[in-house]
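During the reporting period the student researcher (J.K.) took over the structure-prediction task from the postdoctoral fellow and processed the backlog of single-chain submissions. One of the processed entries is reproduced below for the supervisory committee.
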Amino acid sequence: MKNLYCTIIVIIFFLPLLANETVNFSGQWSFDKARSEFGQGGDRFVPLRLNIMQSDSMMMVVRSYQREYDDDFIDTLSFSLDGKENHSEFWHSPRVITANWQEGGCLLTIKTWITFTHEDQESEIFSTDIWKLDKNGSALTRDFTINGPLGEMKAIYIFTKTD
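J.K. obtained the following structure tokens:
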């Protein structure tokens, strides 16, 4: 009986610690076109490969895009996972990224704002990218919504782990 009480106390003590553990997206991922749902935007702006390095507080994502008539385009994102604004550039335009954990660390919500200026015309693009892993960690789902001058577009992109 004494052992049962000790076990219950240990479970009660450690359960909250386990509940706050976040998923780790680290690894190399390949775009799975067959399992993805594109919506109006198609797949032209989807990276073919993701290389993700994640620590407790930061994430770096190297996105590789294939271009038909040019070398591949590589974009590197680096941001904190605590909801603070992270400033960088995308195509010589200011970009702000925030990332927050949801549902006890099972979902990562990444919000991005980019302000483009062309011929003294300014336009903004806002995106929300919700990441989650499947149960065995072999598929990354990105529930992606983008709002810009052309309106709202939604898609679900699936990536499979390659390492």
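The committee noted the following: Residues 4-19 have pLDDT under 50 and may be disordered.
J.K. will present the remaining backlog at the next meeting.
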